[in-house]
Amino acid sequence: MARDYYGLLGVAQNATDQEIKRAYRKLARELHPDVNPETEAQEKFREVSAAYEVLSDPEKRRVVDLGGDPLESGGGGQGFSGAGFGGLGDVFEAFFGGMNSSGGARKPRGRVQPGADSLLRTRLSLQECAVGVTKHLTVDTAIICDLCTGSGTNGNSKPVRCETCGGAGEVQTIQRSFLGQVMTSRPCPTCRGAGETIPDPCRKCGGDGRVRSRREIAAPIPAGVASGMRVRLAAQGEVGPGGGPAGDLYVEIVEQPHDTYVRDGDDLHCTIRVPIVDAALGTTVVVDTILDGPVELTIPAGTQPGEVSVLRGHGMPKLRANSRGDLIAHLDIVIPTKLDSKQTDLLRKYKEMRGTERTEVLSAQSEHNSGLFARLRASFSGR
Fold this sequence. Notes:
By secondary structure, the chain is α+β, with helices and mostly antiparallel strands. It is 23% helix and 26% strand. Helix 2 packs antiparallel against helix 3 (39-55).
């Protein structure tokens, strides 16, 4: 059975934080071991200190109001038994300078348990990843039952101590073996380790304190996200058994391919086809960027095949930083494959004018070949 924390402090269930604090201070001064060395007073002091620890914490108080016991849920508390004063050092520190110890008997896990995290994937365009967006998503999770508000009971009925395990949350069995008698413990099959059952469960949730529901949520996606990243939405996951605190919802990003750009971290890459004449004479091309619209890119005269031109700061925004990557244009020099007679005559005249230029095989250590061979080495080393 869940303990009456309000009764231990002598306050009503709707007591304010200040009323709870005043009640605890009054009892603590009467029962503290330095003032009252009686064994019964020390035990009572442990109880009222634990009650104050629970009721001064909004989340733990909510668990109590739902019928649970936060000091017996998930192994997080020491309860009232055990040597010393349990895990209440922060409370004692506020009034008497702090006292700590450990120990305590094993307790049932309680009906109220934290909920599990959930995962949902959403597809985003490169534009959405760049500017950030609020995605309206449909999620299917457990939420608090609106009929019993998480208690799991019908009307004003209450949970009762499990008759099978006597409230221990586990049952023990004794087996005989060649080593002698072996005692084993397992969760109680009746209460599933909670230590209590609900004789009159809620008609809607069947006593679980939660129901499945499909709902719409707005997920804010920051600018700069990429595939594989996850955005955490606190307390939007599964509500726990018994109406316990909800877990988190993680939204995983799946970035869709773009028609023009290939993303590499915060940089964007594209390919620009440049006629050989424009590469020789130089030109200007308009690039439609993701965030800044049309931007002019200057291709200098004498541009060679395989060269790149960079637009600094026109790439993707960096996550949680006030800066951006670059836009890198790879220049593909286009050599014509079909020439009419007039174009052919003009090129021959141009060749005669250049005179000294000729076709030749270059050394691997040549300055003009270093870039090509570096790319070839990188290509073969990556295999």
